[in-house]
Amino acid sequence: MSEDDGNKPDWLDWATEERHIGQLLRDTNPVWFAEVCQILFDTDPMMIRLVGEPEGYAPEVGSIMRSLPQCMNVDDVQQLIFNVFTQWFTPEFAGGRSQYAETAQAVWASWKAQQQE
Fold first, then answer.
1. What is the pLDDT of residues 7-37, one digit of tens each?
2. pTM of the model
3. Which residue of 58, 74, 81, 109 has the smallest Cβ count within 10 Å?
């Protein structure tokens, strides 16, 4: 371990790993990945335009997609998306869980459609 490693924040390792996993998921299913990015862009769950294009949500989409198989219903998806935004941003910035309902319904429908293909 170099001296510089001790100055690196823990979240940087986490974010780097999440981005790597997201890229693997994008490479595996680029069309669905783009669809979920578009869902987040269209529904804007934090209710502020943070990004100027759907691809701006790629880090969050990777985090969401990797955990979707553990979700049993739309409520699980809503909690997942809320947790992802809380992790990527801050609890204060992410807002309340209820504002992720519309996004969760759209992501759940997309996920179910993926399972049928």
1. 667 878 888 888 888 889 899 999 999 999 9
2. 0.85
3. 109
